[in-house]
Amino acid sequence: MKNNIFDIIPSDFKDYKIEKIVGGSSNRLFFRLLKNSHSVIFVDSSEEIEEYKNYIKINNYLSKINISIPNIYFNDDNNYVLILEDFGNNRFDKILNDSLLKELLNLAVQTLITINNETDLKDINNLNSYNFNVLQSEISEFIDFYCPYALQTKITNDLRQQFFYCWQKKFESISFNFNDFVHKDFNLNNLMYLNDRNNHLKCGILDFQSAFFGESCWDLFSLLEDSRIMFDNQYNNYFIEYYHKNSKQNISLKEFKLRYYFLNCSRQTRLLGRWIKLSKKFRNNIYLNFIPITKKRLIHSLNKLNSKEFILLYSKFIPDL
């Protein structure tokens, strides 16, 4: 934080008690401001200015859709701070259990359907579109961080080139349509349970500043294939088919599933490298705990793709495949 928090809190909140909230892997700082029974969230984005600007831009768009996102009570474009509605502490990942699993997933999927059906591309612009160059930069983390960690050896240039060639060949064989709004990190830890609201509005959405234009299945597999939590995937196929049936889709269920599993493979591949990268950056081995879950999610989607070429490729990096 470039400034003392007391210096940049607006006058209406000067007499509020301040509690620091433990953040994730970003450089933003979060605080809860409390007074009697009222509380708000103070966010300092002075180290992530573009994230601040993107958050406000995306918030202006999503506020027009019938979903639950935090209201912005105050924003300071000089210090890059926000005061937001407090959605409380009932994060989906913290309250998740076997009895609540289907209910929470249903609330989240209903929210995704609402976003998909109510999105008007004319109302939002200046979002980046997903493409193979982005995909390649993401999965390169697998080669650069996970493989040296797991195999204890540097990957040869030939094997590296084979890896990217295989991905590009498969990518170009699929007719992608990257023009849907994608939250990007629609994970359980970014969803809040709002008990006082009705239906899908019980699902509060956080951290949408990294949104882009991509395939509409992206947020669905971010939810159902969460790489931090190993919950049973017994409802996955049901929700995949339910989402496809009730959202705006112009492709068959078979094609939808192909895109779902292919892009989820790329995401899980990247995350295997990302966990190693973050553990080194923050010198915190807690990220390594997510590797078995991520690997299991990856292998499941690889099998669903039913691609002998991909299975053969990954067997060179994951011996127990």
Task: Give a short synopsis of this structure.
The protein is an alpha+beta fold and 321 residues long.
Measured as a percent range, the helix fraction is 40-55%
- Rg is 20 Å
Overall form: globular
Low-confidence stretches: none
The figure for the number of domains is 2
**What is the CATH architecture assignment of the largest domain?**
Alpha-Beta Complex
CATH superfamily grouping of the largest domain: Aminoglycoside phosphotransferase (APH), C-terminal lobe
Notes on the structure:
- It contains eleven helices and nine strands.
- The chain has about 325 residues and is of the alpha+beta class.
- The protein is globular and about 60 Å long.
- α7 (about 220-225) crosses α9.
- The protein folds into two domains: about 5-85, Phosphorylase Kinase, domain 1 (2-Layer Sandwich); about 90-315, Alpha-Beta Complex (Aminoglycoside 3'-phosphotransferase, Chain: A, domain 2), CATH 3.90.1200.10.
Task: Give a topology summary.
Blueprint lengths: L4 H4 L8 E5 L7 E7 L2 E7 L4 H14 L9 E5 L4 E5 L6 H4 L5 H18 L13 H20 L5 H16 L7 E3 L8 E3 L9 E3 L6 E3 L3 H7 L11 H11 L6 H29 L9 H15 L2 H7 L7
Antiparallel strand pairs: 1-2, 2-3, 3-5, 4-5, 6-9, 7-8
Helix pairs in contact: 4-7, 5-6, 5-9, 7-9, 9-10
Structure characteristics:
321 residues, Phosphorylase Kinase, domain 1, Aminoglycoside 3'-phosphotransferase, Chain: A, domain 2, five-stranded antiparallel sheet, two-stranded antiparallel ribbon
